[in-house]
Structures are given as C-alpha cells and as structure tokens.
Amino acid sequence: MRYELYYWPAIQGRGEFVRLALAEAGADYVEVGRERGREAVEKFFARKREPHPPYAPPALKAGNRVIGQTANILAFIGARHGLAPKDGAGALWAHQLQLTIADMVTHIHDTHHPLSGRLYYEQQKAAAKRRTADFWGYRVPKFMGYFEHVIALSGGPHLLGKRLSYVDLSLFQIVEGLRYAFPKRMKRFEKRIPRVIALHDRVAKRPRIAAYLASKRRIPFSQFGIYRYFKELDR
Amino acid sequence: MRYELYYWPAIQGRGEFVRLALAEAGADYVEVGRERGREAVEKFFARKREPHPPYAPPALKAGNRVIGQTANILAFIGARHGLAPKDGAGALWAHQLQLTIADMVTHIHDTHHPLSGRLYYEQQKAAAKRRTADFWGYRVPKFMGYFEHVIALSGGPHLLGKRLSYVDLSLFQIVEGLRYAFPKRMKRFEKRIPRVIALHDRVAKRPRIAAYLASKRRIPFSQFGIYRYFKELDR
Question: Which residues on A lie below 8 Å from B120 (Cβ)?
Fold first, then answer.
C-alpha cells in the first residue's frame, strides 16, 4: 500500500518526524504537498466529510484511514513496520517517550514565537529572548537529562535498548534541529549528554537514513520551521 | 487492583483528566499526593531505577507498571474500563482527539505564563495579554470549532457518537476551566459551540461524575493550576 503524507511542502516541521520513520521503514509513500502543492494540503484539511478529521498537519492516509497527530502517526507506523515494541506495555512506553519529545518540540517552537504564531519574530523579540533563557536554563537540561537517563537505564545504545524505534529517529531530529537553531549553545551543551549524541550519530549512519538525508527528499532547515536561527538567541 | 495516582495534591492541573476518567470508571485508586503529601510525589519522580520513568506528573501506577503522559494514561484506562473503542482504529481516533486536547491545554496554560513557568505572572503580564489575545482570537475558535465539528460528524451526543469515551470527560474539563479562567469571554463564546456545551452538561449529570464533582475529591479551581483568573485577561 502506498501511504499519502499531507504536510507543508517547504519545511521540515513536525512532518519530518513522520518522514524519518517512513524512510527508515522503507515505506512507499507520496508527499502530497510536494507533488501537488500547498493548496492540496489545505484542501485535504478543509474536507468537511472526513469521518476522522485531523486537526492540523501532518496527517497520514493509509488506504481509507486518515491519521493525525504526529505521535499518533508514529505509533501507527511503528506498529506496522517494526519500529516499536510489539507488546502493549512496550508500545505504550515508546509512545510515552514520543509524547515527551512532542512537548519538547512545542517548547522549541515557542522560543522564537512565544506570543503568537501569527506575529513576526521581530514583533516578539524581547519575549523570545526571555523564553529562550528559560528554555536553555531549565527545559533543555531537564528534557535532555531525561533522555540521557532513559538510554542509560535501557543499557543503550537506543532509548529502548538494543533495538531501534521510531523514538530514536525523533530524538536524532531534535539534536539536528537544536544544532541548527542554537549552534553555540548546543556545542557547549552536548558534552553533558554523551549517550544522546552517540545515539544521534548512530541513527545518522543507518543506511536508509543516510540515503534519505543525502537526498532531495530531505528539505533543508530554514527560517520557517520549528527550528530557526537568530544570533541574539544563541549566545 | 488498586491504582496509585501520582500528582500534586492541591491542584486540578493535568491530573484532573485522569481523576475524571478514574471516577467515571468507578476504579479503585489512591491519590498518593493527597494521602502522603507532595514530597511522596517528588520522591516517586526522583526514583532512579524505575525502568519506565515518567517525565513529569501525572503518573499512574497499575501493579508493577508505571505510566506517564496524561493522554497515554487515559488510553490505558480507556482500554481497561470501557471508556474507549475496543477496535484499533477507534482507539487511535479517540487518542488523536485527546492529543489535540493536550495541545489546547498547553495553550491555555501559556496564556498566563507565556515566557516561563518559573517567573511570576506579574513578571510576564504584558506578554500574557498578547498571548491571550492570540488564544481567544485564533486558538479557541479553531480548537472549539473543531470539536463542535467532530460531534456533528459523529452524530453526537458524544465526540465519538452514542458512547461516552474518556475524551468527552476531558472536553468537559476544558469547558469548566475556561469558564473559571475567562468567565466573560466564555459566556460570549459558548453560543458558538452548542454541541460542545450540551456534551459538557451531559457529562456533568452522569451519576459518577456528579458524585465526584460534589465530593471533596474534586479540588477547587485556584490560581495555581492550568486555568487562572486574571481580570485584565478576561475582557
């Protein structure tokens, strides 16, 4: 079956977590936004009769099923493509970690847009500085310290132990994004999370992920996604 | 089996979504924070050897299992106590709605604390006003319009149709909280979401929920939770 991914065509955004999972799974899928344009994505989300309407991109269409919410899509892909534990307790634990990653993603986005996604960064620059100070002073150490601890607990090298799961791909993406948005801060911080960085490097070398990252399917980081670089936020 | 709920003893917060589901399920549970104090909750989250450590409260202990992340806990309770569809696609859809509610909860919290949870409201009052304007101008209509649409699609009276699910209990709680934090704004807005309000009223009358709300188990709203009332934010 050929999946359809509905996400914005020009950004990594939350869709990237799904793209990485589909790439690692070797799944056949079409990126509707990139093939048919942004309007096709908007039209899909405006459909009034879809019985399980997703709230916002990304959404995945699998046959007749439409699935929304990034973490939910990953749980679905993980179960189908061997990227999550098969037992109920293990699958729930993987999903729990993914929900914690989702919380971190919201915090990352809000460093540059703490007041409104409809205002420009320049209109909320002072607030962004304060939110970023909180993010690096408190949130990053707590989130990343947590993931470091989880890898240590499982015995590594992955979050769940010996086997890779979709959560590892998402944590890889978090590290990539923080390096783009906060290169100086991240360079200093990485020493404190050796297991997370080793996991990141291991994911980057997986053949399907390496091929994906080197391909045109990987959209470059930009100033329009979750991760944005502003010199004044990266001391 | 007796569940243990680990959450802060003095606030509704995110724990309230779990409490409502446990109440409707008629489940036997102990509130560790309320029986043994806040320190018992902190101690639980500081345990270094828990194999599936939750990131932050709430957490539910079910026998040997420890489950974190509110939406994940609800998926677990829902499956065990008939508060969610039994089939995989239906369960995933219910969970997807719950994740959208979780997103809305974060937005509600950030209306009064857009910059940092470690600063007082007074230190971020100007930012809170701007974030609240965005929340009511854009987020509330979109989120609530979505839930209104989902109830219409399912045929009602619940989000999933004839049968109640844990998501209905959470949507009830969102309405309650918005009424507490933004009484004037909410009074004006409610006319636009008749199905959501009818669902709220229906949930409030369920015997177990009504008994719970009238009991001391229901902690009152306060200025320390997700929903806080500030006159200047409620025009």
Answer: none
Mark yes or no for CB contact A116/B95 under 8 Å: no
> Which one of B52, B77, B112, B151 makes the best mutation probe of the A interface by having the most chain A beta carbons within 10 Å?
B52
SS3 B35: helix
For the cut 90, the answer to whether the pLDDT of residue B220 exceeds it is yes
Residues of A in contact with B65 (CB under 8 A): 89
What digits encode the pLDDT tens for the residues A52-98? 999 999 999 999 999 999 999 999 999 999 999 999 999 999 999 99
What ipTM does this complex have? 0.97
The answer to whether A222 contacts chain B (CB < 8 Å) is no
Answer yes or no: is pLDDT of A167 > 90: yes
State pLDDT tens for residues A175-216.
Answer: 999 999 999 999 999 999 999 999 999 999 999 999 999 999
The domains found in chain B, sorted by start residue, are 3-80 (3.40.30.10), 88-206 (1.20.1050.10)
Q: Is A118 on the interface with B (CB under 8 A)?
A: yes
How many Å lie between the alpha carbon of B204 and the closest alpha carbon of chain A?
A: 26
